Amino acid sequence: MEVTRLLARYVVSATYESLPADVVHEAKRSLLNWMGVAIGGCRHEAVEIALATVSEFSGPARASVLGRTERLDILHAALINGISSHVFDFDDTHLRTVIHPSGPVAPAVLALAETRPVSGRDLLLAFVLGVEVECRIGNSVYPSHYEQGWHITGTAGVFGAAAAAGKLLGLTEEQMVHALGIAATQAAGLREMFGTHCKPFHPGRAAQNGLLAAHLAARGFTSSTQPIEGRRGFASVMAAERNLAEITDGLGERFEIRYNTYKPFACGIVIHPAIDGCIQLRNEYGLTADQIARIDLRVNPLVLELTGKRAPRVGLEGKFSVFHSVSVAIIDGMAGEAQYSDARVADPAVVALRERVSAAPDAGVAKDECHVTVTLRDGRVLKRHVRHAVGSLERPMSDDELDAKFRGLVAPILPADQTEEVIRLCRSLERLPDSAALVKVAVPRAAKDRT
What we know:
Strand content: 5-15%
Helix content: 40-55%
Number of helices: 21
Strand order of the largest sheet: 6-5-7-8
CATH topology of the largest domain: 2-methylcitrate dehydratase PrpD
Number of strands: 8
Low-confidence stretches: 447-451
Shape: globular
CATH superfamily of the largest domain: 2-methylcitrate dehydratase PrpD
Radius of gyration: 22 Å
Distance between the termini: 60 Å
Structural class: alpha+beta
Mean pLDDT: 96
Largest sheet: 4 strands, mixed
Order of helices and strands: HHHEEHEHHHHHHHHEHEHHHHHEEEHHH
């Protein structure tokens, strides 16, 4: 079966009119959420280091760094915006594969939109197709690929960026096959890097590499024509088990963006059920840390595999510590970006409660489920079973909640009028004749431009 060619043929032939209304709506939600985390993360240390490094090598300044005044060539802008959007670990998640779909795709299409006329409809179509490609490829190799240690957002994400950028560049079917092949040979990202600056580097690099793949293919650069399904292709080399039918079955009928979810908490998604349960108990019983003798969690095994850091040393490591996360959930009643600062990770009160948290893996517990037991010093035992965490498909964040999340993330960066303009343009993107207008309101304006 020519998996790559069938996928390329679909991407090249798909039209905006073929997208169901709910798919378009979800794409706009995904883009707004992505812009919030990208703008919110734009001053993070990892972004500062990366921007200072690549600025020395950047070509013509044609694309924006969201939330900042600097401009770069489109490849480096895609890299920096991808890093910025994932540095808080607060972006969207395709729960079946734990891919963060927007991270590799949005930076590529928005960078391109600043170099050529791209209508809002064309941008939305390319974005949906990019998400479709990366998630379907992710479906075909998950969980084997992930269990081998690959960071699937980086490895599958490069295909999504290449497909989306290739769609905007108007690639032919043959060129799209090669774009996917050039993407395949650049697929990378290791889970060993979680808790470091390299984790957000993965979607940034996937965006950059996918964008480059599409441009190379547009000029005639070639690759294998079976880069995914070939005997030494992506699926065979990078997964012990695979199901290539996941890539092609129901193309144009089943859209993976329908299964996208958005984080209410700024950490690894597998921790969310535990945080949710602890916040519920805290609020219901007015709990304080000094009342608690111990907290026992029964969780999916993936929780300890991904977020089992018992004693995180810095904020980024705290995002991968279920022990830290439930401690701040009890003490602060939230788990936003402020709860994952270096200072909060080292706070004596948080550390003391963290040491009284235990977590037991249970294969019978789903990935978005958790059993929380809080034993108080007075002998009372409080229990909460979270069947589906807030933010999951079963308990999704509403449009109003996503708007509020966006406002909170960008408040330190953009003035209120620009914040509301970004929301308005995202919500009505299909009516925008030039989607570069969306990027323009996502960077700080000079004082003279605000008067």
